[in-house]
Amino acid sequence: MNIYNILNKKKNAEELTRDEIFYFVDKFTDDTIKDYQASALLMAICINDLTFEETYNLTDAMLHSGDIVDLKGINGVKVDKHSTGGVGDTTTLVVGPLLASVGINFAKLSGRGLGHTGGTLDKLESIKGFNVGLSIDEFIRDINDIGISINGQTANITPADKKIYALRDASATVDNIGLIASSIMSKKLAVDSDVLLLDVKVGSGSFMKTEENAEKLANTMVKIGEKFGRKTAALITNMDEPLGFAVGNSLEVIEAINTLKGEGPKDLTEISIKIGAKLAFLSGKYSSEDLARKELIENITNGKALLKFKEMVSRQGGDASFVDDNSKFKISSIRKEILSKSNGYVERIDALAIGEAAKELGAGRETKEDEIDMGSGVILNKKVEDMVKEGEPLATIYTENKESIDDAMSLIYEAYKIGEKKPDNYKLILKEVDSFV
Ligand code: URA
Ligand code: CA
Predict the structure, then answer these.
(1) What is 174-240 written as a DSSP string?
(2) How many Å lie between the centroid of ligand 1 and the Cα of residue 30?
(3) 3 state DSSP class of 249
(4) Using 50, 70 and 90 to split pLDDT, how confident is the model at 437?
(5) 10 Å Cβ neighbour count for 409?
(6) Which is the closest atom of ligand 1 to the Cα of 187?
(7) Which of 202, 243, 375, 400 is least crowded, fewest Cβ atoms below 10 Å from its Cβ?
């Protein structure tokens, strides 16, 4: 077997065998196959696509390139969720405590923010003392004790994906459904939860720009999950505006806490309850999703979900008084309202542009080494369907960096599309792809 023949095959749109795919992944990971050869293959894949069988084999090869996180020490069913990357998406911080409050284990290894998307670990670190560097044993112990832990990835998961992704990023080969599906699923399968819910975003700022492609991606990932024996389902959700009002680390954690109190934004509440109810049903604890939904809503009303969040904060070394008193969060000192220049209705809010604005203000990273200003970001004062008058605030920005204000302002003006007519009902949850087993 050699890489030249593999390249030739894919160039001619032939299907690669399982052995050829494993050969490519192994030999690229150990540097035998060069970057220029690998990028040629990735480009051929983008042009000729992968079959389902190839996508499955690529997932398997990348999954086995590194460590598998063994969670068998957790008593009972454990569930996991993944979002393909939204803006202002704080769902994990709501769904996790909600599920744990009804006795379902939520075992989540999260990531940091990069570019215009935020990361759950960064958000949690806006709570003084919160430790996302637990060992796997501590992670398992916490889940057995309180039903939840949200932690960083300490293990060496899917090194092949890291290497391939870096190359894709530099060679315009990110946006292929088979490559995205295998990249995401190899990482999720490397952590052995029982149930996985995928939230596939569609629209600006997400990988899939059309509902049709988002559905293809969701179907492929659900099929892969099922073939590996993981109960997997997906939602396709709209990103024609950021989720909730807050985009930024402290700002989003405060928003998550409000949502757990039943006082959160409508869209974040809706999607969190949907994801939670679906996971709760798939976990086998409830006979229907409706029943699960009722109990989750009850635990928001009676305060149990919020209490669980507080328990998680204490357990991971954080200052739990932040949960009761949100004035303890650091909020950046420069605050400026961005005023509407026209009258009308908000038709859409480009999530990518808002994410970029938040990043400029200090909430995100350009490169992995950049530091984050926890208190910076954007609060959306107007959302899709809202009426707005000239001179009313569209959004409020928070930053410590005066120089970033002008750029953030133009990004926000660019993001808001204001029209004369009230737009049709904004649909947040567009489709569901159900588990087959
Ligand atoms: N997220 C991933 O982890 N991989 C992709 O290829 C795209 C999104
Ligand atoms: Ca938000």
Answers:
(1) ---HHHHHHHHHHHHHTB--SEEEEEEEESTTSSB-SHHHHHHHHHHHHHHHHHTT-EEEEEEEE-S
(2) 21
(3) helix
(4) low
(5) 17
(6) 3
(7) 400
pLDDT digits (tens, 9 = 90+) for 261-311: 999 999 999 999 999 999 999 999 999 999 999 999 999 999 999 999 999
Ligand nearest to the CA of 179: 1
Find, among 99, 430, 146, the residue nearest to 277 by Cα: 99
Reference 267, options 290, 292, 295, 246; nearest CA is 246
pLDDT above 90 covers a percentage of the chain that reads 92
Q: Residue for token digits 């935020």?
A: 118
CA 34 to chain CA mean position, Å: 31
Pocket of ligand 1 (CB under 6 A): 84, 165, 174, 179-180, 183-184, 207
Counting from 1 in the atom list of ligand 1, the atom nearest the Cα of 180 is 6
Among all chains, which residue has been given the structure tokens 């409020």?
396
Measured in angstroms, how far is the CA atom of residue 361 from the centroid of ligand 2?
16
Instruction: Assign residue 142 a region (left: φ > 0; alpha: ψ between -120 and 50; beta: otherwise).
Output: alpha
Are the C-beta atoms of residues 289 and 235 closer than 8 Å to each other?
A: no
**CA 211 to CA 404: how far, in whole Å?**
34
CA of 187 to the centre of ligand 1 (A): 9
pLDDT in tens, 416-432: 999 999 998 889 999 99
pLDDT tens digits for range 131-186: 999 999 999 999 999 999 999 988 899 999 999 999 999 999 999 999 999 999 99
CB neighbours of residue 50 within 10 Å: 23
pTM of the complete model: 0.95
